[in-house]
Design a protein that fits this description.
This protein is an alpha/beta fold and 253 residues long. Helix 1 packs parallel to helix 3 and helix 6 packs across helix 7. The protein is globular.
């Protein structure tokens, strides 16, 4: 039961739906195709009664290196088109955070920008030891999305969240664990085994209770997700449409 597109692989096994970002030549960086395919895979999982748990991961050397800056021109058009593109990023967070299926992350290599936001969106994230993470957005004059302006402070504290987004300093899996950003850190060779073991444990539990837990705990803790994303979208739009941003992006990498 495997669905493959040019950017995402989705496969089902025993109630566990594995969704793999598959642009390995670009470290699974985010472009319009990947967003559309990832969203479709998440929607299918959320709508499918046979899917009990979803596991997201990245093919090749990374989970996701963030926005594909080589394709920045394809993301920025009129104000309406640009807002629609940013909104398509936010819809993915809705599918992960505001639905009632558990989403686990198996994270390795790089988790940058939007990729790091998806890690933060996961219910339980398992990270390989060598993983490197950072938020490049502010240095480029753009803004974070994925409701991290409300999710991250709850995980790491308000000042730490501001520091991480403001200065965009790189950090590793051990730091992510210490700050409460991920659930577990494991050797890379054990990453999928550990994550799938957890997924199997969840799949064996009474599913109504599991779905209730996710819905209730996320609604109770994250009542401000929609409001945060609306504000993020406006700030990101401003950054995307600022001519200085394109200049900064052309110099990045």
């Amino acid at each position: 039961d495997t669905i493959m597109t040019s950017t995402v692989i989705s496969k089902m096994d025993n109630g566990i739906r594995s969704i793999i970002l598959d642009r390995p030549d670009r470290l699974n960086a985010i472009n319009p195709d990947l967003l559309a395919d990832f969203l479709e895979a998440l929607k299918e999982g959320n709508a499918d009664p046979a899917t009990k748990v979803m596991v997201i991961s990245g093919a090749g050397r990374a989970f996701c290196a963030g926005d594909d800056l080589k394709e920045f021109d394809s993301q920025v058009g009129t104000e309406e088109e640009t807002r629609a593109y940013i909104e398509s990023i936010q819809v993915i967070t809705r599918e992960i955070v505001l639905n009632d299926k558990m989403v686990l992350g198996a994270i390795h290599g790089w988790a940058v920008g939007g990729g790091l936001e998806w890690v933060i969106n996961c219910d339980l994230a398992v990270m390989a030891k060598g993983t490197r993470c950072f938020f490049p957005e502010i240095s480029l004059g753009v803004f974070v999305t994925g409701a991290v302006t409300t999710l991250l402070p709850k995980m790491v504290g308000l000042q730490k969240a501001k520091e991480m987004i403001l200065f965009g300093e790189r950090f590793d899996a051990a730091q992510a664990l210490e700050w409460g950003l991920v659930w577990k850190v494991v050797d890379e060779e054990n990453l999928m085994t550990e994550t799938l073991n957890a997924a199997e444990r969840i799949a064996e539990l009474p599913q109504e209770a599991v779905r209730d837990l996710k819905r209730v705990i996320n609604r109770a803790c994250h009542m401000d997700v929609e409001g945060a994303m609306a504000l993020e979208t406006d700030a990101t739009l401003r950054g995307f449409l600022d001519p200085a941003t394109a200049k900064r992006i052309s110099k990045f990498e």
